[in-house]
Amino acid sequence: MRRWSESGLRPKLINAVDPFGDRDPLPIQMVAVPLGVQERDLVALCAPVPGKIAAYLLPMLQHICHCSRLDREACSHPLAVIVVPNRELAEKVVRVMERLSRYMADVKVSLILDEVDALNKLGRGSHVIVGTVDQLGKCIERSTLVMRQSCGYLILDEADYMVKMGFDKELEAMLKAMPRRRTIHVYTETMPTSLEKLARRHLHDPINVAVDREVSKALEQRASEKKVQMLKKRAAEKLLFH
Prior knowledge:
This protein is an alpha/beta fold. α3 packs across α5 and α7 packs across α9.
């Protein structure tokens, strides 16, 4: 995929990420988005490179668009779950999702950061649950978060960090809680042995991709320069025809 028009995403999602048709996908998006749209399991070996969050959110939002109207309207159990190691990343994921889903009708997102969030929000029903691994692990253990009913998409971001923090059992429980027909994406900077074993046990014929940090930064810089040039051109045209 070299252009967003080749991504397979719905027009409303392309409009959200590339409103003027002049923004090229970043490297992680070029490889991850088409695979996500195909609902293939994925292991992405990459640092926190630019565009990573959108790379996994866009296919996930497409998945929600494809869910049955009954599942979307019932909203009794989540259609997708995103697991991250800390509060800062969880909050960032929600901010990016709000921007990318702005042309979608009423996508309900719950951010689970502590036990109060779990008690107050899980009972209301949400299409997407975003939360820290420790809190979502407790929700699985207490059966306040049920994933087997309708959750077709699970994303583990910074998975190696969660393993290093000692949350192997929580991740295992979440993976076991998924239905048979589902998509799992794992984003990780390194591949510890325990994480590799988790992926082997629970991912179905996953595609493995790797994105170099320096290459990604260089391409992001080029994209930023291109955007500045386009903005200058638009400003000049506006003055010309004013």
